[in-house]
Write a structure and sequence with these properties.
Layout lengths: L2 H7 L7 E4 L4 H14 L4 E7 L6 H13 L2 E6 L1 H7 L16 H4 L12 H16 L3 E4 L14 H11 L8 E3 L7 H10 L25 H13 L13 H10 L1
Parallel strand pairs: 1-2, 1-4, 2-3, 4-5
Helix pairs in contact: 2-8, 8-9, 9-10
């Protein structure tokens, strides 16, 4: 899918729209695309502080919104982190070990899973949308290349929309424009928009050291792999640097 097709697939609306922005690659490219489609004055990004280990992603989300010139809200959801801490490696202060990509291959519920996080976040964002009279809530949910969560599929989004359609006084629709795309296709879209360098204002890592990504957790592994597939150097810093040009050339040869 190219940029033109992606933009054409977005719904037409004269109302404002909301983007659920984590600060990661998927939701950040999506937010850039919404600004291109609807204009900066009609897009508001909503982020959630749920006690995530990678809380630096909220700083990256704020940074990206400033660069795009859009409104940004950060909502407190730390109660979710308190609930999930005993079972999720994704929560700060947990004693659950962070897996690498090999640990989660084929796992329908990896230890980075936060129970019902996407349901809670999207429900709250629909609440924000109804108050703001925004017609659509956009989410960067995506079926991952190598592993997946039950709450990232198009089927999941369709189920939430079926619930939201029962609202008798206000209609808001959730849209997941990247649900069937790979991260490589998202990177291609960002490049076509001329926004590849804006991806420096993102972080996908589950286990960062300050502003540096670990390079070994499942999210880092998937991000690195897809930047190599797309033929580009990732503009974010990693704890252990490596030769991107060499990695890209080896992939192209293979």
């Amino acid at each position: 899918m190219n940029l033109s097709e992606a933009l054409n697939n977005l719904p037409d609306t004269k109302q404002n729209v909301l983007a659920v922005l984590s600060g990661g690659l998927d939701s950040s490219v999506m937010t850039m695309m919404l600004v291109k489609k609807y204009g900066a004055d009609r897009v508001t990004a909503v982020s959630y502080d749920y006690g995530q280990k990678q809380r630096v992603e909220l700083e990256k989300a704020f940074e990206l919104c400033n660069k795009l010139g859009i409104r940004h809200k950060i909502l407190d959801l730390n109660i979710l982190g308190d609930i999930a801490k005993p079972m999720s490696a994704n929560i700060g202060g947990t004693n659950i070990d962070m897996p690498d990509i090999k640990d989660v291959l084929g796992d329908p519920q990896p230890p980075t899973y936060v129970p019902f996080r996407n349901l809670i976040m999207l429900s709250l964002t629909m609440s924000v949308a109804e108050v703001a009279k925004a017609s659509h809530v956009f989410t960067g949910l995506q079926v991952h290349d190598e592993y997946g969560y039950w709450d990232t599929s198009q089927k999941f989004v369709d189920s939430l929309n079926a619930v939201a359609s029962q609202n008798r006084t206000f209609k808001v629709e959730i849209v997941a424009p990247f649900s069937l795309l790979s991260k490589k296709q998202e990177i291609d879209i960002a490049n076509e928009m001329g926004k590849l360098e804006l991806l420096s204002s993102t972080i996908t890592c589950y286990n960062p050291d300050g502003y540096k990504s670990c390079g070994t957790c499942p999210s880092c592994a998937e991000r690195i792999m897809n930047f190599i597939k797309a033929g580009h150097k990732d503009p974010i810093p990693y704890i252990d640097s490596f030769n991107w040009d060499d990695a890209v050339s080896k992939y192209e040869i293979s």
